[in-house]
Design brief:
Oligomer: single chain
Number of strands: 0
Shape: elongated
Helix content: 55-70%
Radius of gyration: 19 Å
Length: 141
């Protein structure tokens, strides 16, 4: 697949999922001041739990599965093959101190169709769930 097509699809799905989440928040609150107050509570976890800033393990990794950003970043990473960009460890002369490995390849960024389809599929699930909940909340109002 041409890179621009894959990145375009990922961007489109990410935008739709973000708009769906925004509509859900809008349907949930009563005033725009409440929405502005909730906004940081939604956006900060999106950034932290995406797994870009640091490696997530345990419960935070599982919570990251609920965020749009984790699946979007996973799709972008798979498309540009981030794992291939990880530098290889150089051979050290005998007696040299070991070098810390800062970056490691991760299965989140595997450049496979299966991984890409999983990321796109979960973004689609986010869209459907958020829109369904937003419509349900609007009907209740």
């Amino acid at each position: 697949m041409p890179w621009f097509l894959g990145l375009g699809i990922t961007t489109f799905l990410t935008l739709l999922a973000s708009v769906s989440l925004s509509l859900l928040v809008s349907a949930f609150v009563k005033t725009e001041n409440e929405a502005n107050s909730i906004l940081p509570l939604i956006m900060i976890p999106q950034i932290i739990l995406s797994g870009v800033l640091f490696e997530l393990k345990g419960i935070p990794a599982k919570l990251g599965w609920l965020t749009i950003s984790r699946w979007s970043i996973g799709a972008y990473g798979a498309l540009v093959n981030v794992n291939k960009m990880v530098p290889k460890m150089p051979e050290l002369p005998p007696g040299a101190p070991p070098i810390l490995k800062i970056f490691e390849a991760t299965p989140i960024y595997d450049a496979t169709w299966k991984n890409l389809n999983l990321n796109w599929g979960i973004l689609g699930v986010h869209i459907l769930v958020c829109l369904s909940l937003a419509l349900w909340l609007q009907k209740r109002k």
